[in-house]
Specification:
By secondary structure, this protein is an alpha+beta fold. The chain has six helices and six strands. The chain has a six-stranded antiparallel sheet. The protein is globular.
């Protein structure tokens, strides 16, 4: 978590100083997923961001936005064991996919055709996703 905390500080993620009216358990119940601990740490301690990290632009949704955003795009309903967590601002969403064995992948996938065959893995965990971005690893290199 230390490296993750350093990334949050380096990119000035806005710290959450008030308790959210939405709980992580609400998101887990809605998605029928147990969210990864590194992502839960982000949700409970930071608000969403809208900026470049490394060479890629990302917008991560805040705890208060996740359920509504996923409902708007039908992500949870259409993609098995997947929840959207943000966007790249170019017609694709960033999501967390958890397989039946609880292995996590952070994925990039188009909003227009919600089919897992179009998923591109961009991290093996939420922390790995941010570390890759911080190290300027391009998603499609």
């Amino acid at each position: 978590m230390q490296y993750l905390q350093e990334i949050f500080e380096k990119y000035e993620f806005p710290k959450r100083n008030v308790k959210s009216y939405v709980e992580v358990t609400d998101v887990e119940s809605y998605s029928n997923l147990r969210l990864p601990i590194d992502y839960v740490f982000y949700l409970e301690n930071y608000f969403g961001i809208d900026q470049f990290i490394g060479v890629e632009f990302i917008k991560l949704w805040s705890l208060e936005e996740i359920i509504e955003a996923n409902k708007s795009y039908n992500i949870v309903e259409e993609l098995y064991r997947t929840i959207g967590i943000g966007t790249n601002g170019s017609g694709e969403f960033i999501g967390i996919e958890i397989d039946p064995y609880d292995n996590v992948k952070v994925i990039l996938s188009p909003f227009t055709d919600l089919n897992s065959k179009y998923n591109t893995e961009i991290g093996t965990s939420f922390a790995d996703f941010l570390i890759r971005l911080d190290n300027k690893i391009e998603w499609f290199s």
